[in-house]
């Protein structure tokens, strides 16, 4: 029986190295970029450091992402895009007539708030990134906008079953995200979410109720 041999490459030290697939390389680079940016910040992190941590060459980094800023956007935006995509799939599997809007809202609020808290420093850096003309550099937000639009349709289907209506579900979602981001950024300044009498779950529930009341949902 013939033995199948996986193609290998040779490192600078002359030792064989298994070739990685495109998806594997991108995953390694995104993880390395996230860790480097989190540890040292955007400006103090070099593409060479990211490539070395990922175990790939610097030219390979540019081949996959084009620039340091593009890699940064992907490292920060991907968790949001993935969460919404997974959320839409889960929501689509639910029976809108049986499920309740508050349940959907709590999952959305809790999930996004955890992402904002976990990536707080990176998000602040991302929001401060500008192109040469002084405009926000958020190319990856195009993918995020498409996910928001798809999610807005899910929200409409759930609230309509309960006999309610949101004037603009897309704006309601974006307002909610602004509220959650602001809350995450204000932690330790305006109030402390890690201290006090309320547990993290209770805080998420309070924020969920706040959002539901803001869009006109009747909380029983």
TrEMBL record:
<dbReference type="InterPro" id="IPR023772">
    <property type="entry name" value="DNA-bd_HTH_TetR-type_CS"/>
</dbReference>
<dbReference type="Pfam" id="PF00440">
    <property type="entry name" value="TetR_N"/>
</dbReference>
<dbReference type="InterPro" id="IPR001647">
    <property type="entry name" value="HTH_TetR"/>
</dbReference>
<protein>
    <submittedName>
        <fullName>TetR/AcrR family transcriptional regulator</fullName>
    </submittedName>
</protein>
<feature type="DNA-binding region" description="H-T-H motif">
    <location>
        <begin position="46"/>
        <end position="65"/>
    </location>
</feature>
<keyword id="KW-0238">DNA-binding</keyword>
<dbReference type="InterPro" id="IPR050109">
    <property type="entry name" value="HTH-type_TetR-like_transc_reg"/>
</dbReference>
<feature type="domain" description="HTH tetR-type">
    <location>
        <begin position="23"/>
        <end position="83"/>
    </location>
</feature>
<dbReference type="InterPro" id="IPR009057">
    <property type="entry name" value="Homeodomain-like_sf"/>
</dbReference>
């Amino acid at each position: 029986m013939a033995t199948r041999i996986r193609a290998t490459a040779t490192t600078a030290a002359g030792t064989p190295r298994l070739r990685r697939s495109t998806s594997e390389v991108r995953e390694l680079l995104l993880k390395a970029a996230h860790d480097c940016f989190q540890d040292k910040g955007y400006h103090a992190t070099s593409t060479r450091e990211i490539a070395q941590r990922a175990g790939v060459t610097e030219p390979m980094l540019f081949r996959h992402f084009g620039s340091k800023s593009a890699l940064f956007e992907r490292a920060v935006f991907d968790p949001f895009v993935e969460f919404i995509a997974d959320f839409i799939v889960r929501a689509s599997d639910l029976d809108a007539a049986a499920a309740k809007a508050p349940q959907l809202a709590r999952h959305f609020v809790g999930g996004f708030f955890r992402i904002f808290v976990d990536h707080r420093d990176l998000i602040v850096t991302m929001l401060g990134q500008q192109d040469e003309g002084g405009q926000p550099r958020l190319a990856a937000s195009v993918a995020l906008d498409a996910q928001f639009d798809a999610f807005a349709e899910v929200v409409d289907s759930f609230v309509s079953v309960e006999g309610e209506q949101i004037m603009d579900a897309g704006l309601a979602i974006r307002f909610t995200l602004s509220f959650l981001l602001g809350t995450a950024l204000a932690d330790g300044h305006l109030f402390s979410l890690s201290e006090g009498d309320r547990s993290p779950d209770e805080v998420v529930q309070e924020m969920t109720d706040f959002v539901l009341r803001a869009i006109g949902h009747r909380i029983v």
